[in-house]
Amino acid sequence: MKGNKVIQTMVIMLAIIALAGTVALVMVMKMAGGEKQGEPSADELAESSIDIPEMTTNLADGRYIKISFKIQTDSDKGKEEAEKRDFQIKDVIIERLSEMKAADFKGKEGMAALKERLKQDINALMQEGKVENVYITSFILQ
Question: Where do transmembrane segments lie in this chain (predicted)?
């Protein structure tokens, strides 16, 4: 009887160890898969982005700006939608820029604020996708 109890305890312990190992393996695999969700590769970025060619517009203080953008979307559908809405996106950009003054572009914070505002404004237009990031690809202030 005593040998039977020892075998039964060993079987239970092995089952617990096997279960713990399975749980640990699943968690490690999920964590490894989660890392892949991080920053997109250069190819993925290019595939999901559209270019807004250089545009020139007046600022609120009488100066003018030449600027172009690259807009990164979240998916192929988002890119297609942004391409179809390019005239609306350009309109939003011109409206936003026309309210700004040259001083608003000073420093890293000024540029970051513009990009964030444009991201929010463009996302308000989007229905099927969303804008992940706005990049300024050229900038001349006169």
Answer: 6-28
- For every residue of the chain, DSSP letters joined together read -HHHHHHHHHHHHHHHHHHHHHHHHHHHHHHHHHHHTSSPPHHHHHHTEEEEEEEEEE-TTS-EEEEEEEEEESSHHHHHHHHHTHHHHHHHHHHHHHT--GGGG-HHHHHHHHHHHHHHHHHHH-SS--EEEEEEEEEEE-
Domain housing 59: 42-141
Reported as a single tens digit per residue, the pLDDT across 53-90 is 999 999 999 999 999 999 999 988 999 999 999 999 99
As for how many domains the chain has, the answer is 2
Shared domain check, 59 and 16: no
